[in-house]
Amino acid sequence: MGNRGMEDLIPLINKLQDAFSSIGQSCNLDLPQIAVVGGQSAGKSSVLENFVGRDFLPRGSGIVTRRPLILQLVNNKAEYAEFLHCKGRKFVDFDEVRQEIEAETDRITGSNKGISPVPINLRVYSPHVLNLTLIDLPGMTKVAVGDQPPDIEHQIRDMIMQFITRESCLILAVTPANTDLANSDALKVAKEVDPQGLRTIGVITKLDLMDEGTDARDILENKLLPLRRGYIGVVNRSQKDIDGRKDIRAAMAAERKFFLSHPSYRHMAERMGTPHLQKTLNQQLTNHIRDTLPGLRSKLQSQLLSLEKEVEEYKNFRPDDPTRKTKALLQMVQQFGVDFEKRIEGSGDQVDTAELSGGARINRIFHERFPFELLIKFHAIKNVHGVRTGLFTPDLAFEAIVKKQIIKLKEPCLKCIDLVIQELINTFRQCTNKLGSYPRLREETERIVTNYVREREGKTKDQVLLLIDIELSYINTNHEDFIGFAKYVIRKGWLTLHISIMKGGSKEYWFVLSAESLSWYKDEEEKEKKYMLPLDNLKLRDVEKGFMSTKHIFAIFNTEQRNVYKDLRQIELACDSQEDMDSWKASFLRAGVYPEKDQTVKDGPSDTFSMDPQLERQVETIRNLVDSYIGIVNKTIRDLMPKTIMHLMINSVNFIHSELLAYLYSSGDQNSLMEESADQAQRRDEMLRMYHAIKEALGIIGDISTSTVSTPVPPPVNDTWIPETRSENEQHAAVWERVTFPLLWLSMFRMNCLYTA
């Protein structure tokens, strides 16, 4: 087979360039290429057109190249051009190529000199070119025009840096001969990223436009301002030639004649001109590719492994095979069911770590959102005022209020179901994303599943409303958690029963105040009750504490002059602090036991307050009993709602495994269901093309003989003449060193002379 491969390397890189660009993974591999860098009007476009032998690049003033142009030159018998964004279309008229470049540039950047880093891929086939891949970059500028931003200089520089900082990129630094080479922008940025000069090739344009009596001989011989890889001179068409549509082949003949006839260049004419530049670039790019092969091989192998599993499905793919369609339909439905279960369970690769979804969100609805909605409704109970029992007994008033509050629970329950349904539908749609390759299948699956969910929605809502009606049908006041009329307690705590020593003396007891009575016990276990005092006809009065006492005392007495405790007309209760005493008094107020003096209400409507202590106790009792019972109902509903929804809606969607397939078969033609989308077909083709391109690339790389000798890189040269890009502070420092320091030294010298004299 011989040493195949070196001549195939550039077409190979071109193929990879297209394959990776089309599949959207162009950044995964740094493919070897040549970036053309230079200032505006440096002649970059003319050099590229000379390579092709055709006028095909946009012309004009200011920034003409506003997007990177990846130009792939392919030696071929036929002559035509292709754009990656116009697949299948061949351009044989190169004026149309120019128009397409302008139109595609304007499509991304606008028509008023804006720039974009998104490249345009152009491949030119011609018998007049050597295999070569170049990237034409926007010319460096310092002045913004049109709608360009003020920082256009930095934007262009950043774009250029994106390409030339890669070690796999050769730099073609283009500089006009009629400018100061020592201040070339192209050579400055090249040295910044390639300080050893291993990747930089100098090109001198416009040699024919130098002032009379001057030439660039020393530069082209690499004696003056040397570069490691040296310079190649070219002569492009003048603006007059371009305007007059001078043929490029005639221009290249004129270029050849210029070098052969010029006294300063005739001895190196064979090493000058566009053909030699093209040949040199072809050799250097080929050698550069060979040098980067080990790293490229490693990256290609990694890419191949990552594609292997997906491509395996496509290798023997036949779109119209009915057996394949049946198998694919079964697999898709099964996978859809598995994905849904995983999203509900929150397991496997279906877990979204960025935000809650599926089962996690439904769980939050059950245990956070729904209880919160219930709490809002429950809070309304706290605002029950002015309950009148004149027409109702306390138990009837209690039942009427409880039923009114239970009815209000319907709204948050139905809202909870709506939230769960929305999340279920969102989860189903996320699972159908994998059916995107088959649009009809995805559409039909979403329709069937959504209809099923809506059907279950009706049944679930009916069941939940039934639960509410069941709660309304019987108010169970014997529930073990219900405090009951007799059990309702307003306050508990320690108090000192303050009586004379003759009648037992003062002693601490555990007091329990309910809506009906005041009881006290030996201790807080409430096992040994000492006494129970009914609250009817009781009132409070303040008692002045004794001379040596630190306790705060209030008394309870009967307004009908009856004994309160044993033979005592009043009992005195002592607290450790004024705050504690005030708190107990407030509790007695809630129980309908008021201070001795008459109470008046200065603010609020008169119908919201009653002077009847018994009525006030009943209102307070009913309010708290409603609070207690609705708490029980809420607890029951909070428990049953998730269970009902899970049973009737979520757990029942196992119909995906048992019935969905049958629904799909009955809904329409299987062939139309499994009709592949155009995007999927294109993606498959591109994936296979990339896979085969990588395999072929690895094969070609493997065939390249390690004995193949590439041209060695020239030895280093002294390129300190190229000024480095420096910061503003460094520039000030340099000025100080060149100007201020000598003046300072001269001043010190004069002072020294005067001192000596």
UniProtKB/TrEMBL annotation:
Keyword rRNA processing: no
GED domain segment(s): 619-709
Cellular location(s): Cytoplasm
GO molecular function, one term: GTPase activity
Key words, A-Z: Cytoplasm, Endocytosis, GTP-binding, Hydrolase, Microtubule, Motor protein, Nucleotide-binding
Domain PH: 488-593
Dynamin-type G domain span: 28-294
Keyword Cytoplasm annotated: yes
GO CC terms, sorted: cytoplasm; microtubule; plasma membrane; presynapse
Biological processes per GO annotation: receptor internalization; synaptic vesicle budding from presynaptic endocytic zone membrane
SUPFAM superfamilies xref list: P-loop containing nucleoside triphosphate hydrolases, PH domain-like
EC number annotated for this UniProt entry: 3.6.5.5
PANTHER family xrefs: DYNAMIN, DYNAMIN-2
Family to which the UniProt record says this protein belongs: Belongs to the TRAFAC class dynamin-like GTPase superfamily. Dynamin/Fzo/YdjA family.
Protein name per Swiss-Prot or TrEMBL: dynamin GTPase
Source organism (scientific name): Cyprinus carpio (Common carp)
